[in-house]
Each structure stands twice: as structure tokens, then as C-alpha cells.
Amino acid sequence: MSFDRARAIADAVLLEGYLLYPYRASSTKNQFRWTFGVLAPRGWSGAGGCEPWWMETQFLLASEGAARVEGRLRFLQLRRRRVEESANGGYREVGRLEMDGRAVIAFDESEVRELDFSFDVEDGMELEIPFSVPGGESVESVHDAAGTVFGRIRRESLAVEGSIRIRVDPARSAGPTLRRVTIRVENTTPWADSAAARDEALRASCLSSHLLLRAQGGSFVSLLDPPDWARDAVGNCRSTGAFPILAGVEGEDDLLLASPIVLYDHPRIAPESPGDLFDATEIDEILTLRTLTLTDEEKEEVRSTDDRGAAILERTESMPPEVFERLHGAFRKVKQGEMAPLAGEPSARESSAEEPSAEERFPPGSRVILRPGIRRTDAQDLLFAGRVATVEKVMRGIDGEAHLAVTIDDDPAAELHRWYGRFHYYAVDEVEALPQREG
To answer: For the chain, which ranges sit under pLDDT 50?
Structure first.
């Protein structure tokens, strides 16, 4: 057993939002960072700070004998990069240094921290594991082409202290012996300035915090799709800020990831993706194309902002055509021996001669009355119930099911949405057809 097979998923969580496109320090997007998994100092958080100081995950472990869990707490420690220019025999802090056609920019970097722990899974077991990550400071001189000291870069990080609290309780089960494990991570770093700004408190925070866990002598139970014998126990599990999912390959249940971002069981990084773009909810092709459109001045700022951003730029600019083409799309098997149909092709259910396909029933320009079902989770869709809409196109998911992309007829912005390609989507059984308009 190893954490390696889930490390790519964990790293995507760790760096989510670390530096967003256009990857420049001056970008508005990058003025408010570290939005997931922040554990701030308890003193600051408890005095009214906007970030929590603890997270807690609860999960189930099934075993017939002795079982043990190995864990790894991972987070980012902020490292502030200050820029100072040489002046009057000393130094003064500035936001930017420029010399010989290059620039050095003040910015907040980070370092990955990993803390390993382990425990035996026994009823009633309680354990507290304190941890401490030291701070530090380094100074790097900045020279011009002639070798003259032009300024310096100061990198500073504050120490972070905390604890990992573990508790094991028996859980009701109609099958194997089941135990509920609670792991709580706390930031107990001493902090006196309760009125400090968020940017200051982040210096003593655990950022993008998450847990990797692997079982020996037992197996984790899916909280998303549990077996019948564990459903009652799953209903009694509560997690705050760290949501556990099975992180191994399909069919394996010895690896768990508890992250601040809710995922499905057995997540995967798309094999077509050549590297992280710090936005796992975005499409690689779109971000790559956008990155290539940056001006030379913007690209230079990206290189000056952060080494990770510079690596994205270098990878994008040197990407060979065959790798870039893979980003455009891929087939995925939905059932053994079958492939998902291409968009526009009828699914097996709709391919019979007796029943026309969705494309035949609802060609572009068709008018429908919206009848959304109760399974809808978006309240906005329910607000449009009974409204008349125009079908713009028929879209199909990877499962082959048809969905109608529509614009609302009396929406003043309908023409804008049509131009921009921003539609509302409804299943075929959620609309009622209207006669075609004349002309």
C-alpha cells in the first residue's frame, strides 16, 4: 500500500486556487488567495476572524481483526517574499524591482508540509499528536548585469503549531465489525493580535489542509455509496471542512482522502492533462489557450510572480502539437464493451424506428414549455417552470442522455445568451412541445 496513487489528486486539492489565470500578481483574481482548507490561529479565529481554526473528518473502518491506520497531514505554509531596493547605504521595501529588462515582484509563496502519524484502531481509543513547523528567514541579493547589488529579496515564514486529535468509537453494523474514526486537526499557534488582517493571520495558518489515510487489516467504507449493512452508521458520520472519499483505484478501499473540496469516490486526474493549472474545475484546453494569448509584458510578469506560474507558462509555450490536440477531448467507456455516443448521435434507447430521437423531436428553433421535475437542485430552474423557451441545440452527456439547451423567450438577455452560448439545460422529459412558429 502506498499514498503515491492518490498523490496527484491530493496535489490538485493542495494547489487549487494557489495562483489563478492569468497567473500575475497584479491580477484581481490573485489578490484574495488560499480559499480552501485554511486553518487559522485559534486566537485570531476565535476573536472573530473569517477563517476556522479546526477541521474534523469522520469515517468508517470495517475489520474482522486488528487494524491500523497510517495518516499524513498535508498543508501549505505561507512564505512572504519581500522586495527591497538598495538606498543610501541601506535598504527600503518596495513592491517591485526592475533591472536589465527583468523584474522581481513582492508576492506570497508557499511550501508543502507533510506530517506523518499512525494509530491502532481500537474501541475507545483517544490520541493527541502535537505538531510544530518552524518558521524562518532567508535573504538573497539581487545584482544587475555589472554585478552591483541592486536590492535584495527577503523570504519570511512564521512557525505553525497545532495538534491532531484522534478518537475511535464502535459503530452499529449488520455486517463486519465497524468503527467510526474521528480525526480533528487544530491550529493552536499563539496569536495575540486579534484585530489583524486576514493576510497577516494567513502567515501562521495551515493552508489547503487535507489528510491522506491508508488502512492495514481493514477497509474504509464509502460514505457516498455505502453497503446496506453500514447505512445507519454512515448517517451518524459528520465532517466539517474535510470530507472523506475513497481515493484508490476503482474496487479498492484501503486509501482515503479527506479534503476541503468535496469529491466523488475514486477520483482520477485525466491522463490527457500534461500538468497542474491550479484550477481543477476548469478545462485544460481553455486555460492553455488563454495562457498563450498573454502579451509579452504579461508573460514577463508571470515569470516574475511565482516559480510555479513560470513553469505553467514554459510548459504551455513548449507543448508539442500532439499533446495539445489531446486536450481537445477524449472518449471514456461508460459500460464494458461500449463507448459513449458522439454528440448528436441518438442513444440506444432513442435509436428505435418507432420513436424519433431528441434531435428529430426538438430541432433548433423549436418552442417548448418548461416542466422541470422535483429532482432539480437549482432553484433558478424551478423559477422558470411554465415559461416558454426556444431550443437552441441538443446536447448529450457521456452517458448518451439528451439535454435541451434553451433560451427563455421573454428574457431580455436571451439574444446575448444565444450569442455567448450560455443556455439553460433541461432533460427531454422536462419539457412540453409547442407547435412550430409560422415562418
So the answer is: 1, 335-352, 439
Q: Is there a contact between 247 and 255 (Cβ–Cβ < 8 Å)?
A: yes
Identify the CA nearest to 187 among candidates 131, 268, 257, 227: 131
Per-residue pLDDT tens digits for 310-335: 999 999 999 998 888 888 877 665 54
Question: What are the φ and ψ backbone dihedral angles of 189, each rounded to 5 degrees?
Answer: -55, 125
Length of the chain: 439
User: How far is CA 56 from each of CA 9, 164, 243, 293, 407, rounded to the nearest angstrom?
Assistant: 20, 10, 8, 42, 43
Rounded-to-integer distance, Cα 85 and Cα 102, Å:
14
**CA–CA separation, 402 vs 24, rounded Å?**
40
Residue 260 dihedral angles phi and psi, to the nearest 5°: -75, -10
Q: Distance (Å, rounded) from C-alpha 115 to C-alpha 212?
A: 10
The torsion angles phi and psi of 366, rounded to 5 degrees, stand at -65, 150
Q: Are 171 and 181 in contact (CB under 8 A)?
A: no
In order of start, what are the domains of the chain with their CATH numbers? 34-269 (no CATH), 356-433 (2.30.30)
Q: How many CB atoms lie within 10 A of CB 247?
A: 27
CB 104 within 8 A of CB 142: yes
pLDDT at residue number 349: 43
Residue 156 confidence (pLDDT): 96
